[in-house]
């Protein structure tokens, strides 16, 4: 699935939420749908695409290193396995609740624009310029870009689980 197609699903889903439903949590230990959006947007803008840019700009990159076994599997199946993941404690942060659905819509548009800027720079990129992902090994710019789209897709499953829990 392409990046824009994946984000189009996020945009479409926004139309079906009330402000109240968007920030409602199924239980005190779960995230709201809005928090999933906040997390996915922040990860896209400030982690995945920043790493892709580092590779494209050859900023503190590593040559000759590659993905680890988990990274190879994720790219082989073109997505994250259908399971819950625990963030490393150093990166585990509960996202804040969004200000509003409209604010998320604007941030999502900006995320798409940032992704499209990176995508345009991928023609002729140096596939040997890589930075380290904490779980998947060393990735190049195109792999970071693809990882961001996979991450958005992965969180669509989480959103569906939350919706199902809120309905019951």
Return the CATH topology.
Four Helix Bundle (Hemerythrin (Met), subunit A)
**Helical proportion, percent range:** 55-70%
Radius of gyration using CA atoms only: 16 Å
CATH architecture: Up-down Bundle
Number of strands: 2
Counted by DSSP, the helix tally is 6
Strand fraction band? under 5%
Largest sheet: number of strands, sense, barrel closure: 2 strands, antiparallel
Label the structural class. Answer: mainly alpha
What's the level 1 CATH class? Mainly Alpha
Low-confidence runs: none
| Form type | globular
Report mean pLDDT, rounded to a whole number: 93
Distance between the termini: 30 Å
The ordered string of helix (H) and strand (E) elements is HHHHHEEH
Summed up, the domain count is 1
Going across the major beta sheet, what is the strand order? 1-2
Short summary of the structure?
The chain is built from 6 helices and 2 strands; from the N terminus they run αααααββα. By secondary structure, it is mostly helical.
Question: Could you please describe the fold and organization of this structure?
Answer:
The chain has helices at residues 3-14, 19-23, 33-57, 69-76, 101-120, 141-167, and strands at residues 130-133, 137-140. With 168 residues, it is mostly helical. The protein has a single domain, classed as Four Helix Bundle (Hemerythrin (Met), subunit A).
């Amino acid at each position: 699935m392409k990046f824009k197609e994946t984000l189009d699903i996020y945009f479409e889903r926004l139309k079906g939420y009330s402000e109240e439903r968007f920030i409602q949590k199924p239980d005190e230990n779960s995230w709201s749908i809005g928090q999933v959006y906040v997390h996915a947007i922040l990860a896209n803008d400030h982690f995945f695409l920043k790493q892709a840019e580092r590779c494209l700009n050859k900023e503190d990159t590593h040559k000759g290193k590659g993905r680890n076994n988990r990274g190879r599997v994720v790219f082989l199946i073109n997505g994250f396995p259908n399971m819950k993941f625990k963030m490393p404690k150093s990166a585990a942060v509960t996202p804040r609740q969004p200000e509003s659905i409209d604010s998320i819509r604007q941030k999502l548009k900006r995320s798409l624009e940032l992704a499209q800027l990176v995508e345009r720079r991928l023609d002729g990129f140096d596939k040997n310029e890589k930075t380290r992902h904490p779980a998947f090994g060393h990735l190049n710019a195109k792999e970071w870009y693809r990882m961001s789209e996979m991450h958005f897709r992965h969180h669509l499953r989480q959103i569906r689980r939350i919706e199902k829990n809120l309905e019951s």
